[in-house]
Amino acid sequence: MPLRTADEYRAGLVDGRRLHYQGQLVPDINAVADLRVAVDHAAIDFDLAQDPGHRDLAVTVDPDTGAEYNAGYRIPRNAEDVMARSNLIEAGTAAGGTVVTLIHEIGTDGLFALLRVLEGEAREKAEAYYRHCRDGDLALAVAQTDVKGDRSKAPHQQADPDLYVRVVDRSDEGIVVRGAKCHTTSSANGDEIIVFPTRAMGPDDADYAVSFAVPANADGLSLYVSGYGGGGGGHDAFDHPVSSRHKLLETLTVFDDVFVPWERVFLCQEPEKAGALALTFVEYHRFTAVSYKLPLVDAFVGAAAQIAEMNGVMKAGHIRDKLTHLVAYAETVRALTESAALRSRIGEHGIAYPDPMTTNMAKFTFASGFYKAVEWLQDIAGGLLVTGPSGADWDSTEIRPVLEKYYAGASPAPERLAMMNLISDLTARDLGGYHAVLAVHAEGSLEAEKLQMLRSYTANHAPKAIAYARKLAGLD
Amino acid sequence: MPLRTADEYRAGLVDGRRLHYQGQLVPDINAVADLRVAVDHAAIDFDLAQDPGHRDLAVTVDPDTGAEYNAGYRIPRNAEDVMARSNLIEAGTAAGGTVVTLIHEIGTDGLFALLRVLEGEAREKAEAYYRHCRDGDLALAVAQTDVKGDRSKAPHQQADPDLYVRVVDRSDEGIVVRGAKCHTTSSANGDEIIVFPTRAMGPDDADYAVSFAVPANADGLSLYVSGYGGGGGGHDAFDHPVSSRHKLLETLTVFDDVFVPWERVFLCQEPEKAGALALTFVEYHRFTAVSYKLPLVDAFVGAAAQIAEMNGVMKAGHIRDKLTHLVAYAETVRALTESAALRSRIGEHGIAYPDPMTTNMAKFTFASGFYKAVEWLQDIAGGLLVTGPSGADWDSTEIRPVLEKYYAGASPAPERLAMMNLISDLTARDLGGYHAVLAVHAEGSLEAEKLQMLRSYTANHAPKAIAYARKLAGLD
Amino acid sequence: MPLRTADEYRAGLVDGRRLHYQGQLVPDINAVADLRVAVDHAAIDFDLAQDPGHRDLAVTVDPDTGAEYNAGYRIPRNAEDVMARSNLIEAGTAAGGTVVTLIHEIGTDGLFALLRVLEGEAREKAEAYYRHCRDGDLALAVAQTDVKGDRSKAPHQQADPDLYVRVVDRSDEGIVVRGAKCHTTSSANGDEIIVFPTRAMGPDDADYAVSFAVPANADGLSLYVSGYGGGGGGHDAFDHPVSSRHKLLETLTVFDDVFVPWERVFLCQEPEKAGALALTFVEYHRFTAVSYKLPLVDAFVGAAAQIAEMNGVMKAGHIRDKLTHLVAYAETVRALTESAALRSRIGEHGIAYPDPMTTNMAKFTFASGFYKAVEWLQDIAGGLLVTGPSGADWDSTEIRPVLEKYYAGASPAPERLAMMNLISDLTARDLGGYHAVLAVHAEGSLEAEKLQMLRSYTANHAPKAIAYARKLAGLD
Amino acid sequence: MPLRTADEYRAGLVDGRRLHYQGQLVPDINAVADLRVAVDHAAIDFDLAQDPGHRDLAVTVDPDTGAEYNAGYRIPRNAEDVMARSNLIEAGTAAGGTVVTLIHEIGTDGLFALLRVLEGEAREKAEAYYRHCRDGDLALAVAQTDVKGDRSKAPHQQADPDLYVRVVDRSDEGIVVRGAKCHTTSSANGDEIIVFPTRAMGPDDADYAVSFAVPANADGLSLYVSGYGGGGGGHDAFDHPVSSRHKLLETLTVFDDVFVPWERVFLCQEPEKAGALALTFVEYHRFTAVSYKLPLVDAFVGAAAQIAEMNGVMKAGHIRDKLTHLVAYAETVRALTESAALRSRIGEHGIAYPDPMTTNMAKFTFASGFYKAVEWLQDIAGGLLVTGPSGADWDSTEIRPVLEKYYAGASPAPERLAMMNLISDLTARDLGGYHAVLAVHAEGSLEAEKLQMLRSYTANHAPKAIAYARKLAGLD
């Protein structure tokens, strides 16, 4: 099958899935304005692959068959592949207005994890599934985070056993699963959902050690789209220049006794492998994350430099200081992302992966510095971020001249307001809240990143540092 | 005139003022749902004065006449008065759901500044105006920040001379002013607007050194309400528990050759006094600010403690660490605010004012730590802040049982979602953006606060510290 | 007995105690130059009480007998007493060149804890001991921190049972104790040593739940003075203007089967009271700590302002910014210290104590900001801090003219070098290291301070904040 | 001439130079214990070149002549050369116990700058001088920082015209220079001193725009060695494990009418080139700096991990958190240093240089995080850093058993005390102060680094970020 077009992708989403939004069942996602924004946003990924200017980056060829497929599916074999993957993700996100498209990225992160961690028959199933997705140019979601209930308790200790997705039955044909995942991105507008365990599992949690894939219209599967951020469909492009066009959908993903045939079951009641699978996926996905954060931090720096000029404050010492800090923040994230790629390691089955310590450093640097970056940007921009005119004001022939007169800075009002609205959209409205919460929670929390940094450092780097300290201390 | 009721206040706003919102002229502010939320919010201030539980705090008596008036108008004479004023502002803001009502606070900050800085006839006019406002129990706005144009240039250097409000004519009857102020809070729903110069002015900017008061329906005055945050009128109380009920209105406040009679002109073309007036107002207003931030920081700590319990993570070391940092942040702001009051000084005409260095320290501590506080709170709460269900989902009899089952934590889902939505509203939606931008820009920027801290320290404290350092160094 | 003179104090230290320094047994502490510096430093406390300019602060009168005694011994009954105590400690430390004298402060912190926590006979013994110390105008040390061995293990779990001080025998006459305390300040140059348990103890650690007092020359007691910082005796006053004159002595304090008569035993094998005693002492002592940090932070600000002037850089924006941050740091510590006193509470037996939450906030603010403050100060001062001339260079008639010519700044070289050397001594030499390590470890670690803040907040303030958050969320 | 031995280097320093230390003229640097430590430290560099295990890194071959020379002199032509240079500097510093040897590094930084910036005859002289140094395997110092006097004034505005080194006479044979440089490292124990202007110069400062080289024993040149840090010669290896063996010498370097022949004059009264020369040197030197900081940050992490184990606290959450932050700090500096090398650019005359933005980011990350890193390390280690025993105590046969008993942790006392003393030496004693002050002042201040980051970003990266922001805002 050739690369799909954006319209083919859109059409494929009308498949009878049980999708809910704002309290209603949605028969056709393309027909609901808010949701359509997200579909169109994701469709950018298909458009890029058709775009001559991006084909080199976005399309690759199967050496065995000569068939073209989306480069997001390319299994990385070396540092160059990992770097190219980062560049592709960055380019797609840049086209997505700082919002990742995430219909190939997260799914392939998951596929690479399956292909690395699994062995034997399980791996063969993963390979078959990988080819199915790749050759069908499918849009993929990964459902990993369980709703979790009382977080101080293990899955089997919960009052309600369904708070982590679990196997409730198995037969010769397959398994039946029940429970719910949350924060599932791109499920509403994806073709397939790959399910991963959320963490390492002990023997008592064997039923929760399950990984499989289902189509988004599987029987018993219900998707509840979050109402957060209202919808681009209702946003004015004047004061929501990004979020009126770009949006991700997050679902509560409920498995109400969903049957999964064995060919799509990758892990079933094998708790000893749950941790490796969960972690391997996350490590790929954190690298995806830092790659897709680059357009956002670039936009911060560019917007800060622009609004400083437009306000006429670029020569103020404290403005330059804050701008410099923004530069250092953005470029440290970029340099660490590059380093993570250049230091790639070769894992099981010859599949490359970005260096975990450096990947986690990049992600942690991004996440732990994000709020301060927002502060610098808002500080440079000014209070107009939250007191400016609306699109309806701007459209009024009586009001616009007033706004043009009084909102002129060192640049004319239209430019200054446009830049102000960009910053407001990215940092001080719902999209800003979304970016911020994602910074500390998506792809693993700050604590998870710290844990992995220390773990990876301890395994690979600590012996040298400790030996050096001991030598300096006169020991050994 | 007795204390007004909330309904009297509401009725008084329908006075022919030229109010614009969302591209439309608004004849009756009470009739537009979004704006009505703000009116009802401000009305809390009047309700408090009628509430037996708050009268001690909110109502005071004129010792000369025995007449009651709103305690916000009480001229502070000592540290106790300053502390009481802080407590009143805090109580009003607590009732306002972390949003200050700001119809007495900012105006009296301005009146106290006029009463302290002015002398002779000007001061008599200010006193008369003070009594007019106090005895009429009026709702006041202060318009200080000019739109400013190119900030690298002085008012008279701007390409358009109207970018700072200025005197364009004067006669025996009064003056005519032109220009625009921005970020004017409570003008749309206030009775009077007091205008202050935005900063110190040089001789070339004499026309810009002007301070006066006008009613909100003055001829030539137009108010353009910002569309930011949409409006509480359109927000669901489920996922916007605060912003659906509490809101401030900010206007672009345009003076299109507005005539002001001399009795309401406090400063006219006297640049040498502009700085003192601007600064004295701001110093009072920063103290108002830290007083009204206290409910917000309390809500952060309380919500963090609650959601940690509800998520079942209270025993995690890193959660307790972040909670402790939130406590230290909130309580340092509170302690410094108290200290600023207790260290009050007596200024001109026997009017007390909070210690400027300590006030600025309190405000700077609040502002410079705010984004980090948001990060801690969002980190503790979780990704559900931006992926949760909408009010329409919650209202659906089919969907709610699913949400109740799967969003239960260590507490039932209704409680947990309510707390999650509170945190989301305060930090990750438009109100959150508003709170954040206000933290660094309202009542003076971070840089302005630092400047005042150093200035006040240098004047009052540096000599002792320098003498001590020199003694230690063996000098002197 | 009247107030003692400094010489009486010095003479009293030659009492046969087993004092070791630099590998040698020291028969007379006054005869060893390095140690004599510390004795003379402590003697400042006696001189102050004799100084007419300080008597109001430093001397008080027993209302029962009319006898004068050192005000450090005054049992605080209200907030004013607590504030006065803070002022006395600050004044003594200022006279001590930023180094607390600590011969009355820590001991009375301990005595107040004993007088509050103990009951019945034990409290009578504590009262008698209090009068003994007060009326004898004795210099007191407190030995609390055990050497602790493997910190992951409880006292009784240690490989060597002596790693916490413990009771090894008891008889009708008293008890016998063995073990060692470390970081004991002022034991080498104190008259009495009061021993506290280092923390709460469980039932298995009953033998370690012991509190008592012994004279510094008790049989079996050995004091090993740390060699850290060399000694003021060897420092040139040119490049060590403070540490050549002011110094504390820290000992490893070894109890080798020391007999303690019952009248000096305050707690013996009562593990249930160990925690309260340890904590109550520490809470007083943290307040002492923040009080004695004030001269140090003042010196930082004063020295920063001076060296900026002397270098000719006071007008640079980044210098003013750093100076402002130093001011905010110093004055926040001061304001919180004052608040802790003003918010004093009344404890058992009517004895007042500073508010624990605020005290811990003050201490934590000091400690967690200290290194950044050092950075700002060193940044403002310049590299000359570690590349400047020695006292011998300065004393050379050939070299001094060269130094005077080339080290002139905006001020003459002698002033600039004096200020530079002060900063170097306080931050970049051994005394600087001592100040820094004490910031994070003395009187409890950063973690201990955070624990107490949260604990105190939870007990006293959290209910209100939580109720407010719940109300905002629509719960309750 | 072959590679010199350490002894040849030592012998070469006895050349009649006017060296002063502690108020005395020093005829033979090798004969003064304190200074000898620094000579022996620098000699490590020569030993490394003789060491079979390091020859690959430390020795290279002239492709023209086949002669071997120290690899520090290799002119970088590409990213690999720059990376190799970083590795060599790191290895030399690791051998130097975290203290850079700095007898080849800084001098070649200067030589590369001369070879890049100069043209024509001046460049030929620089080339000849380069060969002279390289072929003689000379130890080089660079004197750049002038004493500067009042920093608010330009060189020619100073009250004393000699506060920046200047040309006072010129003739056919050469020039005569007068003035003083400070913070000159390795001049006392170097063979040659290369002089650079300290900054860009305006036309009025033409006489100060001078660059040249002189041998350390030039007539009229006097070197005044700083007394800071006392000397390794007086330090016990027990409690000063590093500083008793490793030390740099800093001099006040006075040119009292020193004659310089034209062949050694690289820039004379050409103010327009002063800035480029100063900056180019500094950019190389900052890369040298971050390369030589790597062993120090490694030692911090290694020592922190070790002392945590030895104290028995490795499992405490807050300890792991601090250790993780130390890891992130150290490894971010390392990753940025590598990135700076890998992103090397090719400058004038085909000479490569590390990417300036990335170099400055690496240096700024190191410098701005250093004090916090010290805090983490000291926090993990404990108060024993400044209350521990001295070498004399340890050597005492009576005292050592007491120390061994009571300072045992989870590891025996000898190991724990050795590690504690290492940390104390690196952070809490004079060497610690030296490391800290160097972090913020050596090779350019924090402000200089920020300036260069922004400048380099603006030139190379800003256009892309700005274009992206404008596109997102709907502009262009």
Walkthrough of the structure:
4 copies of one chain form a homotetramer. The model of chain A has no long low-confidence stretch (mean pLDDT 97). Helices cover 49% and strands 14% of the residues of chain A. Chain A has 476 residues and is α+β, with helices and mostly antiparallel strands. In chain A, the strands form 4 sheets. A 6-stranded mixed β-sheet of chain A has the order 2-1-10-11-7-6, with no helix packed on it. Chain A has a 4-stranded mixed β-sheet with strand order 5-8-9-12. In chain A, strands 3-4 form a two-stranded antiparallel ribbon. Chains in contact: A-B, A-C, A-D, B-C, B-D, C-D. At the A-B interface, strand 7, strand 11, helix 9, helix 10 and helix 11 of A face strand 7, strand 11, helix 9, helix 10 and helix 11 of B.
Key phrases:
homotetramer, 476 residues, alpha+beta, 6-stranded mixed β-sheet, 4-stranded mixed β-sheet, 14 strands, 49% helix, globular
Report a brief summary of the structure.
Chain A is an alpha+beta fold and 476 residues long. Chain A has helices at 6-12, 33-50, 55-58, 79-95, 105-117, 120-136, 271-311, 317-342, 356-381, 391-395, 399-406, 413-427, 430-441, 446-460, 462-472; strands at 18-21, 24-25, 59-61, 68-70, 140-143, 166-170, 174-185, 192-195, 210-215, 221-225, 250-261, 265-268, 345-346, 352-353.
Class derived from helix and strand content of chain A:
alpha+beta
Strand content of chain A: 5-15%
Low-confidence runs of chain A: none
Oligomer: homotetramer
Task: Estimate the helix proportion of chain A, in percent.
Answer: 40-55%
- Say how many strands of chain A there are: 14
What is the residue-mean pLDDT of chain A, rounded to a whole number?
97
- Number of helical segments with 4 or more residues of chain A: 15
Largest interface: A-B, 81 and 81 residues
What separation lies between the terminal Cα atoms of chain A? 63 Å
Largest beta sheet: strand ordering of chain A: 2-1-10-11-7-6
Radius of gyration of chain A: 23 Å
Overall morphology of chain A: globular
